[in-house]
Amino acid sequence: MDMQVAKKKLGLKERYAVMTRGLDWKPSYQKMEDIYPYMAYEGIKIHDWDKWEDPFRLTMDAYWKYQAEKERKLYAIIDAFNQNNGHLNVTDARYLNTVKLFISGISPLEYVAHRGFSHVGRQFPGPGPRVACLMQALDEIRHAQTQVHSISNYNKYYNGMHDFHHAHDRVWFLSVPKSFFDDAITAGPFEFMVSIGFSFEYVLTNLLFVPFVSGAAYNGDMGTMTFGFSAQSDEARHMTLGLEVIKFILQQDPANVPIVQRWIDKWTWRGYRVLTLVAMMMDYMLPKRTMSWKEAWEVYFEENGGALFKDLARYGIKMPDCAAQIALEKDHLSHQAWSTFYNYAAASNFHTWMPDEEEMAWLSSKYPNSYDKYYRPRMEFWREEAAKGNRFYNKTLPMLCQTCQIPMIFTEPGDPTKICYREVDYKGDKYHFCSDHCKKIFEDEPEKYVQAWLPVHQIYQGNCFPEGTDPTVEGFDPLAAVLKYYNLEFGRDNLDFDISEDKKNFAEWRGQATKNV
Amino acid sequence: MSTVFIALQTNEETRPIVEAIIQDNPDCTVNEQPAMVKIDAQGKLVVRRETIEELIGRPYDLQELQVNLITISGNLDQTDDEMILYWNA
To answer: Which of A2, A10, A56, A206 to probe the B interface (max B CBs under 10 A)?
Structure first.
């Protein structure tokens, strides 16, 4: 880019003031509480909205200019990537499963984020946060669109991505990211800002985008790298919005502090649970690894998040309690998650596999305290069984946590040999939880979480079969019916990578790309 | 002092920017990662417009950084002349 820089008549601070607060007006014939009806019920007190300022001081005119430049760059690269059969340059076809995970698990959330920020942007009386939310709403829909455009090229060649949005709303494990965002957008505007703007964007998003995108680059996926970095360039602004909003709320009234602390505790844990998918992606799904989940957690959460909470201490905010449990889980999370997906490969929209010898050695070196002791023997056993023709597919549906909706696979903090179960009786029903933190979130707002759409319950209630299915006929195969409902094809979109069409086609096409046929 | 950082895409546009950051923050640490460069500094990091302009030989608007920015850490304050990342504690 070689942009002409015109001589500015106003400095950045004045320009920002004119283009945000300067465009606002006081209503004269409607009451403020009628125009902004959601401002009071969460208990957050704001005395002066003008105290909020975007430290980037980005105004809409500059926003359009830089976003347009990002789009031009992105689409030029996507075209070149597609024209050049770039999909054949990825390290190996296993990598594509991370793309499937992304398009069905993450991209639909970008769209929901767009809706969420449009909503809160409308609801905040302050012009500063309103303009920043408007920008973020536009960013988020841009992310959804550019991800769909970039990944559509992969969909021409590989399985499992053909109906990602349908899958997002139905497939069992996709209820984890989906319910996370549904939880956020059904909260009030301030909680939404703390959940997505602060906890997700500021505290956790680096763990999603930086390793994922750097990993994509490392694995030859120029398409994903490009949309990823294009999206990430907006993320820095989102993180800043999240941090500024939280500082602003805390400065406005001391009564806000305990409310905000409760939200931070809740949403750090909720977000961390969703990142389980990223943990296994980093440790198991990237053929060429950049860093382990544990290393990424240490850099981006423990070090960076530690600095953040130290900085927020002067407002009376402390590191969420769940950080202690997360520190205990970092040696185990990705292994427990990948084992689960290996089990349930018959019911998902991507393929799984067991790591080879060299990959296991990498895992041993990155997880010296846990991998060889707890996980390697299990994985070697599965690998041996698969070699004998007994590839294990678990057909029993798992019990789910009522809050995070993840199967109850996690172990007791400090004892990786014992599954962690918690339960609560509420109005005559029993609810199950994967952890003390998910249990506490439920206990704080039971009326919200009893409504959870839990895929396993829904399957057992007969709500996840195609219309007209009769589950009482002899020889009824529930898995086959559920896959039909998911719009996934048995033997094509699911099962082990080793026997997949993706693997076969990729090898054949890559062969064609390097010699005359 | 806590660490602040800025991460930029690795490309021709950011090369002189990274150079300018190193000049203005001599104690910073530069981590080259696949397709990106992450610059860490203790407590405070400053990106100065003038230094970048000297290196690229043309006027530069610091908001152009938006195009190649990946992530930042720390409180931010941006003016026409500089972008500062800092922790208070």
So the answer is: A56
